[in-house]
Amino acid sequence: MDAVVMAGGQGLRLGMGEKPVVDLLGKPLISYVIDSLEGAEEIGKIYVTVSPFTPTTEKVVGERYEGRIKTIETGGDNYVGDMIFAVESVGIEKPVMIIMSDLPLITPSLIDQIVRAYYDCGKPSMSVFIPLSLCKKVGLRPDTVFNWEGELIVPAGINILDGKDIREEQEYHNFLLDDPQIAININTAEDLKYCSDILCEKQKNNSPGEF
User: Fold this and answer.
1) pLDDT (0 to 100) of residue 135
2) Total domain count for the chain?
Protein backbone atom coordinates (compact mmCIF):
# COMPACT_ATOMS: atom_id res chain seq x y z
CA MET A 1 0.00 0.00 0.00
CA ASP A 2 1.30 3.47 -0.88
CA ALA A 3 1.10 6.37 1.56
CA VAL A 4 0.56 10.12 1.21
CA VAL A 5 1.85 12.35 4.02
CA MET A 6 -0.14 15.58 4.21
CA ALA A 7 2.33 18.42 4.81
CA GLY A 8 1.04 21.41 2.87
CA GLY A 9 -1.11 23.17 5.45
CA GLN A 10 -0.29 26.45 7.16
CA GLY A 11 0.01 25.01 10.69
CA LEU A 12 -0.77 28.38 12.25
CA ARG A 13 -1.70 27.10 15.72
CA LEU A 14 1.80 25.93 16.56
CA GLY A 15 3.27 29.33 15.66
CA MET A 16 6.77 27.99 14.94
CA GLY A 17 6.95 28.34 11.16
CA GLU A 18 6.42 25.31 8.95
CA LYS A 19 5.12 22.62 11.25
CA PRO A 20 6.47 19.59 9.32
CA VAL A 21 10.06 20.78 9.81
CA VAL A 22 9.79 21.97 13.40
CA ASP A 23 12.71 20.45 15.29
CA LEU A 24 11.95 17.66 17.73
CA LEU A 25 15.11 16.39 19.43
CA GLY A 26 17.25 17.25 16.44
CA LYS A 27 14.93 15.78 13.82
CA PRO A 28 12.22 17.38 11.64
CA LEU A 29 8.73 16.47 12.82
CA ILE A 30 7.77 14.98 9.45
CA SER A 31 10.76 12.63 9.51
CA TYR A 32 9.30 10.67 12.40
CA VAL A 33 6.31 9.81 10.20
CA ILE A 34 8.32 9.16 7.02
CA ASP A 35 10.87 6.98 8.83
CA SER A 36 8.11 4.86 10.36
CA LEU A 37 6.41 4.50 6.98
CA GLU A 38 9.72 3.40 5.44
CA GLY A 39 10.14 0.85 8.22
CA ALA A 40 6.66 -0.62 7.82
CA GLU A 41 6.33 -3.91 5.96
CA GLU A 42 2.94 -3.00 4.48
CA ILE A 43 3.92 0.35 2.91
CA GLY A 44 5.26 0.76 -0.62
CA LYS A 45 5.80 4.17 -2.18
CA ILE A 46 5.66 7.27 0.00
CA TYR A 47 4.58 10.71 -1.20
CA VAL A 48 4.53 14.04 0.63
CA THR A 49 2.18 16.90 -0.24
CA VAL A 50 3.77 20.34 -0.06
CA SER A 51 2.50 23.80 -0.95
CA PRO A 52 3.50 27.48 -1.16
CA PHE A 53 3.14 27.45 2.63
CA THR A 54 5.78 24.73 3.09
CA PRO A 55 8.78 25.39 0.79
CA THR A 56 11.29 24.39 3.47
CA THR A 57 9.47 21.10 3.96
CA GLU A 58 9.91 20.32 0.26
CA LYS A 59 13.63 21.13 0.50
CA VAL A 60 14.18 19.12 3.67
CA VAL A 61 12.38 16.04 2.31
CA GLY A 62 14.36 16.22 -0.92
CA GLU A 63 17.69 16.52 0.83
CA ARG A 64 17.07 14.15 3.71
CA TYR A 65 15.67 11.32 1.62
CA GLU A 66 17.81 11.87 -1.50
CA GLY A 67 14.92 11.56 -3.93
CA ARG A 68 13.39 8.41 -2.42
CA ILE A 69 10.30 10.37 -1.36
CA LYS A 70 8.43 12.26 -4.05
CA THR A 71 6.86 15.60 -3.14
CA ILE A 72 3.59 16.74 -4.72
CA GLU A 73 2.83 20.46 -5.10
CA THR A 74 -0.68 21.35 -3.91
CA GLY A 75 -2.53 24.55 -3.05
CA GLY A 76 -2.25 23.94 0.69
CA ASP A 77 -5.53 25.63 1.59
CA ASN A 78 -7.97 22.72 1.22
CA TYR A 79 -7.15 19.39 2.87
CA VAL A 80 -9.61 17.27 0.88
CA GLY A 81 -8.80 19.00 -2.40
CA ASP A 82 -5.06 18.58 -1.82
CA MET A 83 -5.53 14.91 -0.96
CA ILE A 84 -7.56 14.23 -4.11
CA PHE A 85 -5.06 16.10 -6.27
CA ALA A 86 -2.13 14.18 -4.76
CA VAL A 87 -3.70 10.75 -5.26
CA GLU A 88 -4.78 11.51 -8.83
CA SER A 89 -1.54 13.21 -9.85
CA VAL A 90 0.55 10.13 -9.10
CA GLY A 91 -2.08 7.73 -10.41
CA ILE A 92 -2.85 5.73 -7.28
CA GLU A 93 -5.79 3.46 -8.11
CA LYS A 94 -5.59 1.11 -5.16
CA PRO A 95 -5.98 1.57 -1.40
CA VAL A 96 -3.76 4.38 -0.11
CA MET A 97 -2.93 5.57 3.40
CA ILE A 98 -3.42 9.28 4.05
CA ILE A 99 -1.51 10.36 7.15
CA MET A 100 -0.76 13.66 8.82
CA SER A 101 2.83 14.83 9.24
CA ASP A 102 2.53 15.62 12.95
CA LEU A 103 2.33 12.14 14.53
CA PRO A 104 5.88 11.71 15.82
CA LEU A 105 5.17 8.68 18.03
CA ILE A 106 3.77 6.52 15.24
CA THR A 107 5.76 3.30 14.77
CA PRO A 108 6.23 0.88 11.86
CA SER A 109 4.37 -1.83 13.78
CA LEU A 110 1.38 0.45 14.37
CA ILE A 111 1.27 1.36 10.69
CA ASP A 112 1.32 -2.32 9.74
CA GLN A 113 -1.43 -3.01 12.28
CA ILE A 114 -3.60 -0.30 10.73
CA VAL A 115 -3.05 -1.55 7.17
CA ARG A 116 -3.90 -5.11 8.14
CA ALA A 117 -7.03 -3.93 9.95
CA TYR A 118 -8.06 -2.20 6.72
CA TYR A 119 -7.70 -5.36 4.66
CA ASP A 120 -9.66 -7.28 7.29
CA CYS A 121 -12.54 -4.79 7.52
CA GLY A 122 -13.90 -5.46 4.04
CA LYS A 123 -14.83 -1.81 3.38
CA PRO A 124 -13.30 0.50 0.73
CA SER A 125 -12.27 3.09 3.30
CA MET A 126 -11.25 3.15 6.94
CA SER A 127 -10.67 5.93 9.46
CA VAL A 128 -8.55 5.49 12.57
CA PHE A 129 -9.93 6.84 15.84
CA ILE A 130 -8.85 6.82 19.46
CA PRO A 131 -11.16 6.86 22.49
CA LEU A 132 -11.68 10.25 24.09
CA SER A 133 -10.85 8.59 27.39
CA LEU A 134 -7.34 7.93 26.09
CA CYS A 135 -6.87 11.62 25.29
CA LYS A 136 -7.85 12.48 28.84
CA LYS A 137 -5.48 9.83 30.14
CA VAL A 138 -2.47 11.36 28.35
CA GLY A 139 -3.58 14.92 29.10
CA LEU A 140 -4.67 16.03 25.63
CA ARG A 141 -7.65 18.18 24.68
CA PRO A 142 -8.77 17.26 21.15
CA ASP A 143 -10.40 19.71 18.75
CA THR A 144 -12.84 17.21 17.25
CA VAL A 145 -14.92 14.56 19.00
CA PHE A 146 -17.49 12.18 17.49
CA ASN A 147 -20.13 10.02 19.11
CA TRP A 148 -19.84 6.55 17.61
CA GLU A 149 -22.22 3.90 18.89
CA GLY A 150 -22.39 5.64 22.24
CA GLU A 151 -18.64 6.08 22.62
CA LEU A 152 -16.83 9.40 22.27
CA ILE A 153 -13.97 9.04 19.80
CA VAL A 154 -11.32 11.32 18.31
CA PRO A 155 -9.84 11.15 14.77
CA ALA A 156 -6.19 10.12 14.77
CA GLY A 157 -5.24 11.75 11.46
CA ILE A 158 -4.87 8.46 9.58
CA ASN A 159 -7.26 7.26 6.87
CA ILE A 160 -7.17 4.65 4.15
CA LEU A 161 -9.17 5.20 0.98
CA ASP A 162 -9.60 3.41 -2.33
CA GLY A 163 -7.59 5.55 -4.75
CA LYS A 164 -9.61 4.61 -7.81
CA ASP A 165 -12.72 6.18 -6.26
CA ILE A 166 -11.00 9.04 -4.46
CA ARG A 167 -13.62 11.56 -5.61
CA GLU A 168 -16.53 9.42 -4.47
CA GLU A 169 -18.10 8.96 -1.05
CA GLN A 170 -16.89 5.55 0.11
CA GLU A 171 -18.43 3.13 2.55
CA TYR A 172 -16.21 3.29 5.60
CA HIS A 173 -15.14 1.42 8.69
CA ASN A 174 -14.15 3.10 11.96
CA PHE A 175 -11.07 1.46 13.45
CA LEU A 176 -10.78 2.26 17.14
CA LEU A 177 -7.19 1.98 18.34
CA ASP A 178 -6.54 2.42 22.04
CA ASP A 179 -2.84 3.29 21.77
CA PRO A 180 -1.26 6.49 23.14
CA GLN A 181 1.36 6.51 20.39
CA ILE A 182 -1.21 7.74 17.89
CA ALA A 183 -3.04 9.94 20.38
CA ILE A 184 -0.41 12.66 20.26
CA ASN A 185 -0.29 15.02 17.32
CA ILE A 186 1.49 18.35 17.48
CA ASN A 187 -0.71 21.45 17.46
CA THR A 188 0.74 23.55 20.27
CA ALA A 189 4.07 24.22 21.97
CA GLU A 190 2.75 22.23 24.92
CA ASP A 191 2.14 19.22 22.66
CA LEU A 192 5.71 19.51 21.37
CA LYS A 193 7.16 19.64 24.88
CA TYR A 194 5.02 16.71 26.01
CA CYS A 195 6.12 14.63 23.05
CA SER A 196 9.75 15.59 23.58
CA ASP A 197 9.57 14.42 27.19
CA ILE A 198 8.11 11.07 26.11
CA LEU A 199 10.75 10.51 23.45
CA CYS A 200 13.54 11.46 25.87
CA GLU A 201 12.21 8.95 28.37
CA LYS A 202 12.03 6.25 25.69
CA GLN A 203 15.59 7.00 24.60
CA LYS A 204 16.80 6.90 28.19
CA ASN A 205 15.20 3.51 28.66
CA ASN A 206 16.40 2.42 25.20
CA SER A 207 12.86 1.30 24.42
CA PRO A 208 11.55 1.91 20.88
CA GLY A 209 8.11 0.41 21.56
CA GLU A 210 5.29 1.18 23.94
CA PHE A 211 5.35 3.89 26.61
Assistant:
1) 81
2) 1
Which of these, 154, 38, 157, 161, lies nearest to 100 by C-alpha position? 157
CA distance linking residue 159 with residue 175, whole number of Å: 10
Count of all residues that appear for the chain in the document: 211
How many whole angstroms separate alpha carbon 106 and alpha carbon 97? 14
29, 19 contact by CB (below 8 A): yes
Q: Which residues of the chain have pLDDT under 70?
A: 11-15, 206-211
Determine, yes or no, domain membership for 50: yes
Coil vs helix vs strand at 147: strand
pTM greater than 0.85 (yes/no): yes
Q: Is residue 132 within 8 Å of 142, Cβ to Cβ? A: yes
Is 211 within the bounds of a domain?
A: no
Residues in contact with 166: Cβ distance below 8 Å, sequence separation at least 6, in sequence order: 83, 84, 87, 88, 92
Is the residue at 114 inside a domain? Answer: yes
C-alpha to C-alpha distance for 164 and 168, rounded to whole angstroms: 9
Instruction: Give per-residue pLDDT as tens, 64-111.
Output: 998 899 999 999 889 999 999 999 999 999 999 999 999 999 999 999
